[in-house]
């Protein structure tokens, strides 16, 4: 996910300061990793440098100084272009689980035990996400984010089942390579 474009998207609704942008990001993308304040301000500085955002105002109101930013016309054009781009499906996904299965075979470990443990971890995470999405008051963004993660975890589980059924063949291939 492009922090640069997400912040531009948040600025599309009107001028905002970094603290507010961070808060709105964390609310709108509840399953994403929360942004660090330093990341927000560094990204804002780059957006200004690149002409995609500009300082709208600087206010103090007796507290710390707050700089408000707004998207420029160039920023709005870049955001529209980015939002309209189709994210190409990856031809091959780098898979840490697969790498660990192969390394387990190479090192004389127990890839079947590893897959069982990984399956248990995935199932636990799926239970957590199901609880999150069915919690009273869960908003649609939270439900959709949880559904996205659940579908990916489910795909991983199906892959683990297929891989476990093929471990004998995989072990023979890895051992002879």
From TrEMBL:
Gene3D superfamilies the record matches: Winged helix-like DNA-binding domain superfamily/Winged helix DNA-binding domain (1.10.10.10)
Protein name: PadR family transcriptional regulator
InterPro entries: Tscrpt_reg_PadR_N, WH-like_DNA-bd_sf, WH_DNA-bd_sf
SUPFAM superfamilies, A to Z: Winged helix' DNA-binding domain (SSF46785)
Signal peptide stretch: none
Pfam families according to UniProt: PadR
Coiled-coil ranges from the UniProt annotation: none
Domain named Transcription regulator PadR N-terminal: residues: 7-81
Superkingdom, natural source: Bacteria
